[in-house]
Write a structure and sequence with these properties.
Elements lengths: L1 H16 L13 H6 L2 E5 L3 H12 L3 E5 L17 H6 L1
Parallel strand pairs: 1-2
Length: about 90
């Protein structure tokens, strides 16, 4: 069961990390291009971490995902959207 989940995890990760990064013109030193030369560390290998990595990679950044848990979990954390959190979500 763990091997199957690990395989699914790897198959989800490979398409994201194999996306080509945007080429950067070294002749120009604009702030936008300089920022894209920077690697970005993402803490957490959940859906939010992988989504962030995907979109950063699409925009030419080099994301690196780290996760403290040594193995995959059965499920995720529940999200409570009530009270103030509901107002923020709106």
């Amino acid at each position: 069961m763990i091997v199957k989940k690990l395989l699914v995890f790897i198959l989800c990760l490979l398409p994201i990390m194999s996306l080509p990064s945007k080429e950067i013109n070294n002749d120009s030193f604009s702030k936008e291009e300089t920022m894209k030369e920077t690697r970005i560390l993402i803490s957490g290998g959940g859906i939010a971490g992988f989504t962030l990595a995907y979109w950063l990679k699409q925009r030419g950044y080099s994301p690196i995902i780290i996760e403290k848990h040594p193995c995959l979990r059965e499920g995720g954390y529940k999200v409570d959207v009530r009270g103030t959190a509901l107002e923020v979500a709106k």
